[in-house]
Amino acid sequence: MGRLNDDETVRRRSGWLIPLSVFGVTFALSAAFLFFYLAPRGEGLFNEQAAPTSRSDLVALTVGGLAFRIPANYLIYDSARTGGTRAEAALFALLPDLSGWSNWAADAFASNAEDSDVVYLTIKAKASLSEADKLKRVWPDYLSDRRGDDGPYGLHRYTFRRDTGYRNEELFVGQTDAGPVVLRCVKQSPEVPSPSCLRETQLARGVTLSMRFKRAHLDTWRDITAKADKLIATFRKTAGTP
Q1: CA 129 to CA 202: how far, in whole Å?
Q2: Which parts pass through the membrane (predicted)?
Q3: Domain extents for the chain?
């Protein structure tokens, strides 16, 4: 008799333990879903938020052994304004003169419109080939036609193969006295109504500069890249970097 009672108790406990376990697992998965998909992401939770300033005092930074003195109003993040050695420095500037952030230009800097005048610049401690070397040694393997064709604004245009991660982009190459300028531009589409162009260039061995601007300004690529190069050179010269 006692044996039967024990078995009955076990069955009764099993009857509510299983649903309780299922509920617990479901609750845990639901909580994880809410955390990863509904909680603040990126800037709000894990990364530093942009904190522009109108201050123009010079901040001494070193990236990859390269010294810079950058006005505070060009630096996107407040932590960078403490200066010192950093893995990268994120900057922004406003066309047409690549001026730094100011109170009266706050709306323009916040714009992500198709024709936004903001240019983003990132100096990063990263090994990279020169634009000329990448054009010879890297990009040909990703192109659908290595000959390309005549593009707009004095640029030569190449398309990427459909089986690459660059299939939604185009490669534009412009020739300057200092060498080729290579731009990867996202194609405009309903999914990407405000596409950008990206350029990566080698500042020094182990130091790379990337710049990003809206594709709507591709017609002034020569002016934008020349002014960006001059701006970064000024920051290096002010710091005494040859």
Answers
A1: 7
A2: 16-38, 58-77
A3: 2-39, 58-238
**Partners of residue 63 on adjacent β-strands:** 66, 86
In the numeric block, which tokens belong to residue 76? Answer: 């996107």
Nearest one of 234, 231, 205 to 121, comparing CA atoms: 231
Q: Are strands 88-94 and 196-204 parallel, antiparallel or unpaired?
A: unpaired
* DSSP letter, residue 164: S
Tell me: the pLDDT tens digits for 129-154? 999 999 999 999 999 999 999 999 99
Task: Quick: pLDDT tens for 199-241.
Answer: 999 999 999 999 999 999 999 999 999 999 999 999 998 877 7
Position 8: which residue type? E
H helix intervals, 119-201: 131-137
Rg (CA), the chain: 26
Which tens digits make up the pLDDT trace of 22-57?
Answer: 444 343 434 333 333 333 333 333 578 999 999 999
Query: What sections of 67-165 are H helices per DSSP?
Result: 106-110, 131-137
Distance CA(201)–CA(181), nearest Å, equals 8
What one-character DSSP code corresponds to residue 48?
A: P
Q: Are 127 and 202 a contacting pair, CB within 8 Å? A: no
Name the percent of the chain lying above pLDDT 90: 76
Omega of the bond leading into 96 within 30 degrees of 0 (cis): yes
